[in-house]
């Protein structure tokens, strides 16, 4: 046997799994196709700018596994962002998105829409109807976001739910399920609880990788499972491992794992991902704003979903006197931009964002474009209906980790799934020798 445990993917899910296994005394090697760790929590350092290409923040609420890991690593001193979110409507930003104050100040919503949303979410909270770990058990589990919003004022969809699910997850509300979205709203709390790591959102990934045997630029092409081990084939290499944790997006797992058990295939096939395209613009000054993140509804823009002022999110994201702005493409244009050139992406998104940040294009001195072909799990009602059966039978020579395992698209779900995959792997030898 070449390896005890092979973890495929050095995102936060794979690194969390490897960390737990190493603490338990298992010999672990992590294989990462990219030339860096972090996955969808990666950061690039360019000319003094700290560019978060993936996740943007965490919360003091709804992240228990993450905070336990941070305390273990001595990284739990995470500063608050200190700014709120807004939504664009009628030519200006309205503060209060993702915060209870928005129900009072409006946050761009009509009065009836505020009352409708308060009534809907209050009912869900009373019945404990949504669970970030078991969203399929929700009484709204079969409804799309659009269907959940249908009985209420149109602003509930167009100026609250759609901007959030499209901007943060890349979802189209007519396709994606309401239950995971509502569960996350309840779990992570208001935007005043949100924080951003010093030195970039990949600080945890880098700290974990420094303690582990990680091989980057090492793509895995095929995994073939047997009763007691799995064969792993890469570029010119072939290894055997007693256990494998596939910590990659579900479509990638389905592609490389050639013989998954029959009962796993329906969910793996149904678990689709949405693409995400981000343009990070380096500016010659630091634009001021009442909000650090501006959600842009599709009714206001077809191409831009989010305008994020990184230098307001955390002061170390840009050098003194400079600014850093992130534009996130809307789901309507993201698929087409995956294959566009960097210049085409910057030109298209910056031209549109000029409405929200006047003088933007003239202030740009450089840019970084990042594309996630597999951005976030889409959580369609079809996939959600299959998730419970899939999750109830996890374990074996090949296991899985990632936020897609619970269909809740946030980094806490990735950390949690990695730790639980590690616990199942520790049981594999016992079952094999029983």
Automatic annotation (TrEMBL):
<feature type="binding site">
    <location>
        <position position="220"/>
    </location>
    <ligand>
        <name>FAD</name>
    </ligand>
</feature>
<keyword id="KW-0560">Oxidoreductase</keyword>
<dbReference type="InterPro" id="IPR001613">
    <property type="entry name" value="Flavin_amine_oxidase"/>
</dbReference>
<feature type="binding site">
    <location>
        <begin position="32"/>
        <end position="33"/>
    </location>
    <ligand>
        <name>FAD</name>
    </ligand>
</feature>
<dbReference type="GO" id="GO:0016491">
    <property type="term" value="F:oxidoreductase activity"/>
</dbReference>
<dbReference type="InterPro" id="IPR002937">
    <property type="entry name" value="Amino_oxidase"/>
</dbReference>
<feature type="domain" description="Amine oxidase">
    <location>
        <begin position="12"/>
        <end position="425"/>
    </location>
</feature>
<dbReference type="Pfam" id="PF01593">
    <property type="entry name" value="Amino_oxidase"/>
</dbReference>
<dbReference type="InterPro" id="IPR036188">
    <property type="entry name" value="FAD/NAD-bd_sf"/>
</dbReference>
<protein>
    <submittedName>
        <fullName>Oxygen-dependent protoporphyrinogen oxidase</fullName>
    </submittedName>
</protein>
<dbReference type="InterPro" id="IPR050464">
    <property type="entry name" value="Zeta_carotene_desat/Oxidored"/>
</dbReference>
């Amino acid at each position: 046997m070449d390896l005890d445990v092979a973890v495929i993917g050095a995102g936060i899910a794979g690194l969390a799994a490897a960390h737990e296994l190493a603490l338990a005394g298992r010999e672990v090697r992590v294989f990462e196709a990219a030339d860096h760790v972090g996955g969808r929590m990666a950061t690039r350092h360019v000319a003094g700018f700290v560019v978060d290409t993936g996740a943007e923040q965490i919360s003091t609420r709804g992240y228990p596994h993450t905070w336990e890991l941070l305390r273990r690593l001595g990284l739990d001193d995470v500063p608050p962002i200190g700014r709120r979110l807004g939504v664009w409507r009628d030519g200006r930003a309205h503060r209060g998105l993702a915060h209870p104050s928005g129900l009072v100040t409006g946050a761009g919503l009509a009065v009836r829409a505020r009352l409708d949303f308060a009534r809907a979410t209050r009912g869900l909270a009373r019945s404990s109807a949504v669970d970030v770990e078991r969203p399929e058990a929700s009484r709204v589990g079969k409804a799309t976001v659009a269907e959940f919003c249908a009985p209420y004022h149109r602003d509930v969809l167009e100026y609250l739910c759609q901007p959030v699910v499209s901007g943060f997850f890349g979802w189209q509300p007519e396709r994606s399920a309401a239950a995971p979205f509502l569960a996350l709203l309840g779990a992570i709390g208001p935007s005043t609880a949100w924080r951003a790591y010093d030195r970039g959102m990949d600080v945890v990934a880098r700290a974990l990788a420094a303690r582990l045997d990680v091989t980057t630029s090492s793509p895995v092409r095929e995994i073939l499972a047997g009763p007691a081990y799995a064969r792993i084939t890469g570029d010119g290499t072939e290894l055997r491992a007693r256990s494998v944790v596939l910590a990659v997006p579900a479509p990638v797992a389905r592609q490389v794992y050639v013989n998954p058990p029959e009962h796993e295939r329906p969910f793996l096939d149904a678990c689709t991902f949405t693409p995400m395209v981000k343009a990070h613009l380096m500016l010659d000054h630091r634009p001021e704003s009442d909000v650090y993140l501006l959600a842009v509804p599709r009714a206001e823009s077809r191409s831009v979903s989010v305008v994020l002022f990184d230098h307001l999110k955390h002061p170390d994201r840009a050098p003194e006197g400079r600014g850093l702005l992130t534009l996130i493409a809307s789901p309507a244009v993201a698929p087409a931009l995956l294959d566009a050139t960097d210049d085409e992406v910057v030109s298209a998104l910056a031209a549109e964002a000029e409405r929200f940040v006047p003088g933007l294009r003239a202030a740009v001195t450089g840019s970084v474009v990042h594309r996630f072909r597999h951005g976030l799990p889409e959580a369609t009602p079809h996939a959600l209906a299959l998730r419970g059966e899939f999750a109830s039978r996890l374990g074996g020579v090949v296991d899985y980790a990632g936020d897609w395992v619970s269909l809740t698209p946030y980094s806490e779900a990735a950390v949690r799934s990695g730790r639980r995959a590690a616990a199942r792997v520790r049981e594999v030898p016992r079952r094999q020798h029983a």
